[in-house]
Protein 1
Amino acid sequence: MIKCYSWPTPNGIKIHIMLEECSLNYKVYGIDITKGDQFKKSFLKISPNNKMPAIVDEEGPNKKPISIFESGAILMYLAEKTGKFLPKLKREKYKVVQWLMFQMGGVGPMLGQSNFFHHYCPEKIPYAINRYKNEVGRIYNVLDKQLKGNKYLTGNNYTIADIAVWPWIIPYYQGQKIENFRNLYSWYKIINERTAVKKGLNVLSKRQKPGKEIKMNKAAKERLYGNIQRDAGKMKVY
Ligand SMILES: N[C@@H](CCC(=O)N[C@@H](CS)C(=O)NCC(=O)O)C(=O)O
C-alpha cells in the first residue's frame, strides 16, 4: 500500500491523478497546509522541505518501505514501479524527463508566484502581478507551441509530463485566459475527460475544492508566507 501525504493543490493533484491512472492501492493522509500539518515532526521526517506531497511505499525496492518527497521524483518513482507513463528507451524517456523538469523548475514556481501575487499577497503590487502574469503567458506560449501537432506534450503518448503540467493549467491558477492558447486549451480538455483525472480531482475535495481559492485567515497566511516559514528550515526533524 502507498501512503500519500497530500493536499489538493496542483502538486498534490498530480500525485492523486497518477495513483488513479496506475490503479495503485493507496491511502491519503490530508496535510492541511493552512493549519500547519506540514511542520509536524512526523511529516518533516519524510518531507524535510515542509512541503507536500510525499509518499511512503510500504513495498518499495527489495520489498522494503521507501519514502519520497518532491512531486517530480514521486511521479518518476511510480512510473518506474508500474512501468507506465514513462518510456524505457533513453531517447524517449529523456524527452519526457525534460518536460517534467520544465514543469518542476518553470511551470510550478512561476505559476505559483503568479497565483500568490494575484490572490494571496496582502498588498496589491502591480509590478509583481504583471511580471508573473507575463511569465505565465510566456510559459503558456512555450507549451502551446510544443502541443502544435502533438496530442500530448511529448507526442502521441500520455506521460508523467502531461500529468505534472495539467493540474497547473486548471483555470484560476493562471492569471491568463487559457482559451487564447488554442493547442494548450484542447490538450487541457482532452485530459480533463480522463476517468482517472476526474477521480484524482475528487481526492480530499470535500476539504479543499481544486481550482478554488484556498480560504486563509491571518494565522494561515503567517504559516505559509510569514515568519514561521522563515524559521521552518531550522525545525528539528528527529
Ligand atoms: N517542488 C515541490 C513543491 C511542493 C509545494 O510547493 N507544496 C506546497 C503546496 S503546493 C506546500 O506544501 N506548501 C506548504 C509550505 O510551504 O509550508 C513539489 O513539487 O513537490
Protein 2
Amino acid sequence: MIKPYQVKNFLISLFWHIYSGYPKASKEQILYRFGICRTCEFFDTKNNQCLQCGCFVNDRKIFMNKLAWGDQQCPINKWDKINTIS
Ligand code: SF4
C-alpha cells in the first residue's frame, strides 16, 4: 500500500524531473545504481523499494523507477545524479 510520504516524495521528484527536462539514465547507469541498491540495508527486496525515500527501484528502464531518472540521487548519497550536460 502506498503511504502519504511516498506520494509527497514522488510529487516533489516529479516536479524536479520535469523542471530538469526529463533526463533519463541509460540501461548501464540503471544497472550500476541498482547494483548499489541491492546491497543497501534500506532496500526492501520484497517490494523493490527504497525504505529511505519510499521510491520504487529496479533494473528496468521504465517511468516508475527512480533509478531511470537521471536527475535523481540516493537520499543517503550512495549514488549520484547523472551529469547529462556534455
Ligand atoms: S536509493 Fe540509496 S538508500 Fe535507497 S535503497 Fe538505493 S542505495 Fe539504499
Protein 3
Amino acid sequence: MTISARVFAAMYDRMMASSEEAGLRDIRRRALAGARGRTLEIGAGTGLNLELYPEAVTEMVLTEPEEPMSRRLRAKVGDRASVVDAPADDLPFEDDAFDTVVSTLVLCTVPDLQAALAEIARVLAPGGQLLFVEHVRSEDAGLARWQDRLRPLWGVVGHGCRPNRDTAADLRSAGFTVQLEHGKLPKAAPIIQPMITGVALPPG
Ligand SMILES: C[S@@+](CC[C@H](N)C(=O)[O-])C[C@H]1O[C@@H](n2cnc3c(N)ncnc32)[C@H](O)[C@@H]1O
C-alpha cells in the first residue's frame, strides 16, 4: 500500500465536501435514480453514493481496489452492501450478473479503460445499464491542452486521475450506446471540467 493511497483515502471526504454541498450530491442522486435490481458500483471509494440509491435497488455490491478506501467503505456500509476488493478491469463476477453498474468519478482513474468497459459489458445482464457521473476532457482546445500538460502532476494530486480522458468517446468505441448530459462539477477546478452524467447501454 502506498503513502499516496493512504493520504488520498484519508483526505477524500474533506476534499469533496464543498463540491458535494454545492450540488454534486444532487447530481449523484439524479444519476442514480434509475438504478434497479442487482447493482454493482465500481471504485466506490468512501461510499459517498450509499445513501442515494433508490428503493428499486434490490442488492448492492461495491468494488474498490485500494485498501485504504475499502477499509473506510466497509466501516460505513455495515450490512447494507457487500464490499469486494477488485479493480474494474478484472471483476470477479459471472457474466450477466447485474442489472445496473454505477461509476461515479472512476473511469478517469482506471488505468486500462477499454478492459474495464469490456468487464462492465460482460457483467451486465441483457437489458442492463451503466449509470455514470464522470469529469472528462474539455471541448475547449486551450483547456484540453492544459489538461494534457498537467496530466502527470494531476495524476499525483488525484491519485491516478487523468483529467484529459474523453470518456464518452471511449464508451462509444467500446460499443456502448450513450445518452448523456453535459454539466459542471460544482466548485471544482477547471482542469476537471466539464462533467458528463448519463446512461450507457452495453453492446449487443
Ligand atoms: C475519485 S475516487 C471516486 C470515488 C467514488 N466513486 C466517488 O464517487 O466518490 C476514484 C476511485 O476509483 C478507485 N480506483 C482506482 N483504480 C481503480 C480501478 N482500476 N478500478 C476501479 N476503481 C479504481 C479509487 O481507489 C477511488 O476510490
Protein 4
Amino acid sequence: MLISHQMNAALNQQIGYEFGASLQYVAIAAHFDRESLPELARYFYRQAEEEREHAMRFVKYIVDAGGRVEIPTIPAPQSQYATTEEAVQKALDGELTVTREINALVDFTFKETDHTTRNFLQWFVTEQLEEVSSADTLLRIVQRAGEQNLLHVEEYVARQRHRSGAALARADETE
Ligand SMILES: [Fe+2]
Ligand SMILES: [Fe+2]
C-alpha cells in the first residue's frame, strides 16, 4: 500500500465531501428548476456531475494506491432558499470549504512526506481556483442584476455556456 492508513482515512473523508458537494448542487439546481430559471438549473446540475467525478477520482486513486474505499455518511444538503443570492452564496461557501479541505489534505501529505498523494492532489488545487472564481463571479452577477432581473443572469449563464462550448469545439478541431 502506497499510502498510510491515516492518509487512506483522510481521502475517504474527502470522497464524502465531494459527494456532499454533488448533492448540494443537485438541491440548488432543483431549486432553480422549480423557479423556472433553466440556465441556472442546467449550470448547477452540471456542477453536481463534476463533483461526482471528483469523488470518483478519489475512489480510483485510493484503489490504485492499494487502499480501501469506505464511503462515509453524506449529510443532507440544504434544499430551501429564500433568494437566488442565498443559493449562489451557498455554492460559493461550499467551494471555499472544499478548498480548505483540499489544502488540509496537502498539508497532511507534507507531514507524511507522501509525494504520491501530494502529486495527485495538485489537480484539485488548480481546480479549486477555477471553482471559487466562477462561483464568486456568478454571485456578483446575481447581486448586480438583483432578484427582479434574473433573466439577465440567465442570459449571462447561457452566454458563458456557449462560449465554453465553442472553445471546446475549437480544441477538438486542433487535436
Ligand atoms: Fe469538487
Ligand atoms: Fe467544486
